[in-house]
Amino acid sequence: MKSVLRSVPPLTGRPRTVVAAGPFLAVIVVFAGIYTAVSGRLPDPLATHFRYGGQADGFTTVQGFLTGSLALFLLLGAVVGLLLQLRPDAPEAPWVIAGGYATAAAVGYAVCVTLLSNADAADASAVRVPQWELFLSLGVALCAGALGRLLAGAAPAAPRRPRGAVSRLDLPAAATAGWSRTIGSPSLAVLGGLLLAAGLLLGLFADWIAGAGLLFGAAVSLPLASVRVTVDRRGLTLAPTLLSSRCHFRRIPLDRIEEAGSRRIACFAEFGGWGYRIRGGNSGFVLRSGEGMVVRLTSGREFVVTVDDAATAAALLNTYTDRARSRQGG
Fold this sequence. Notes:
Helix content: 40-55%
């Protein structure tokens, strides 16, 4: 698979937009075709929700199901398109396309199976959907995601990781300074907002237990969509801007820092995605690809954060680290 991807150049511009929109348009066409074929054989209302075991426990009018399904396809397609527009040249764009393919396939499979299961049913409450359909939908989603990743082309290669000399700030011995930047991810903000809205709607109109997973996803995504990165005499701190300044999800004190530097980060090539990531023993908070600060810890591991003006932050952190070592040595 990797050798095939290397031979396919990455898509940009209009071709990438067409490839990204393809699965959603295909699913709408297939869904419309299946509805046309079975429309005269459907009960009204339809069985549209099934508990574990396959028994129907939720019902919707035919018109409501058609409208909701079409709106869902358009919303998911718009989210994928927005993510691509926000970072048009990002190395992670091929994986966004792959995720769109997998999502379109999974949702499309579910709504099409719902229509076919209701066909010729005299009573919607008697409709059953076998549990193996769930596992088959996961397989379809994985295959579709692999196809999308292949069509999206190769991602840029991961950057080299040079280990040159690290800098310090020329700060007088008695002086103190601080550095702070806010980093944000519109992608995570959009995702968190959609999860919150979907969870609330599902809870209000269906089942709060079913909506709990979506609400949990929103609770995780929204605080991480905007984070303040601070370097001061205490070390490195990352804290969500939406919460109290006392709430931080990562703090690295000076006595755990060996040295700091800066370089370009490819978040998907190096960490496999956005957010707080752990890979290969190293960790990082990456909301985009680009300039980032790399903190080498006394344990030998690295912590990475993508942030503008990373070189200044690293230099100040090295200055404070040197001071802490001097005090300990003295």
